[in-house]
Amino acid sequence: MIKLIASDMDGTLLDGRGQVPEGFDALAAELAARGVRFAPASGRQYFSLAESFPRYEDEFLFLAENGTNVVYRGETLFTWPMEQAAAHAILEEVYAADPGIFCVFCGLRDAYALASQRSEENVAELRKYYTHAAWVPSFAAVEDTCVKVSFFDVTAHSKERIEPLVEKWRTAQQVVLSSDYWLDIMAPGANKGIAVRAMQKHFGVRPEECAAFGDYLNDREMLGAVGYSFAMANAHPAVKAAARYETASNEEGGVLLGIRQLMAKGLI
Question: Is the dihedral angle over the CA atoms 228, 42, 235, 11 positive or is it negative?
């Protein structure tokens, strides 16, 4: 029987307007009644995830910052910090190479962005994923544990524009495209899959007792860490190749449909 379900947020659980699908609350109550933990797993910071689910802050297991910060009932269960020196070096290099790329230092307390990059577009994008944020004169002024660094390209060409600038760091850090707009860099080996495996160990749950849903490249390791892996109909081809099953798109409530399918099979 399935005891843990992890789901990516943007492009997976949420529709294009950033809303959970109709019927989510009823399904969440049913999962809780059956003893199944639900885990939003996202590149978003913990505070953003918690504010997205105010009714479930003490129920859900939050895998934030691409799995580098895991929080349950207000308690941090697992963190995978990044070396501060590496974070600063990467941020400085990308900003120097292309000041049009929006750079973010993701800390445990706040997300930090440069005051020099403050614009209407960047403020709006930051607020989507980081509800606790600060604008600083330089990243050297930040005194916080770094869990990842993130880069945003407003033209939606993160692979073509940002990836070449950080290619040299790929052997020393975990580099992953989170969407057409965002690229994230974490400590080596850090990803949503590692976080899921850590939670399996913490709660005494086997991989075959877990399910996961995802749509983009930063979800692949998470799908590989569970017995029942679902790619959304709108997922990246590489994610579909990594998943055992496919469900409807995020616009069609694919996560809920997939969970209902598992229930119909007697797996939940």
Answer: positive
Asked if 80 contacts 147 with a C-beta cutoff of 8 angstroms, the reply is yes
- Residue 134 has φ and ψ, to the nearest 5°, of -140, 150
Q: Would residue 180 show up in a list of annotated catalytic residues for this protein?
A: no
Q: Is the pTM of this model over 0.85?
A: yes
Rounded to whole angstroms, how far apart are CA atoms 72 and 40? 11
Cβ-proximal residues to 165 (8 Å cutoff; 6+ apart), any chain: 93, 94, 97, 98, 101
Catalytic residue among 8, 10, 110, 153: 8
122 neighbors 116 (Cβ within 8 angstroms): no
Tokens 């959970």 found at:
20
Q: Are 87 and 108 in contact (CB under 8 A)?
A: no
- pLDDT in the model for residue 141: 86
Q: Which residue has the tokens 């190479």?
A: 97
